[in-house]
Chromosome partitioning protein ParA
Amino acid sequence: MKVITVLGFKGGVGKTTTAVHLAQALSRKGKTLLVDGDANRNTLGWASSGHLAPTTISEKQVPRHMNQGYEYMVIDSAARPSPDEVRDLAEASTLLILPTTPEAMSLQVLLETAQTLQKVGASNYRGLLTMIPPHPSKEGEEARTFLQSEGFPLLSAHVRLTKAFRDASASQVPVVQVKSAQAKNAWLDYEQVTREVLALLEEA
Ligand SMILES: Nc1ncnc2c1ncn2[C@@H]1O[C@H](COP(=O)(O)OP(=O)(O)OP(=O)(O)O)[C@@H](O)[C@H]1O
Ligand SMILES: [Mg+2]
């Protein structure tokens, strides 16, 4: 089973949105488990409507779901993990995805997360730029250039800023089930992210 953990020290950067949509897209490829590892239980709340494709559970239920033929496990983790939690998650995961918004504060916290990961010897991580404002804003490109100059590994795919994600979480459906042009693009963004993640899992 391939384990993908969505991790980050900062709150509100799109961890839950990323975990939900990555798991939704992976469900088309193979049997997928979505694990809510955050005591706030946002992911389980989202799943409670019954509209998510992956089986969604809390971390306590993970042992019961082992050896049940799941191909992918996506873990939504809580913000501000301790260094021990980071080490445990890094060791348990095939790949860590670290979402960040393009704001300076968010990028700074991302670099701190990377330092913690390096301290525990992990290199199986990629950043994901989320909530990128539309053209003519250059915030997304600037954030990418900055992170590249810091040697931070990033997915090439990014996720645009769009209200469709708030609509999706408000009605507890994945964005693929929201009927609007923005929602269509929003889903395309996560499909692109998923393609890249699948390629990285192949290499791992
Ligand atoms: N690409 C996006 N465009 C616009 N809004 C977004 C996007 N991604 C997420 N959001 C919204 O931003 C808010 C925070 O997102 P989310 O809950 O995924 O972050 P989080 O990192 O899991 O937060 P927390 O640390 O509180 O668990 C939510 O209201 C969500 O709907
Ligand atoms: Mg969350």
About this structure: DSSP finds eight helices and six strands in the chain. The beta strands are 2-6, 32-37, 55-58, 72-77, 95-100, 125-129. The helical segments are 15-26, 42-47, 62-65, 83-92, 104-119, 139-149, 164-170, 181-203. The chain has a mean pLDDT of 96.
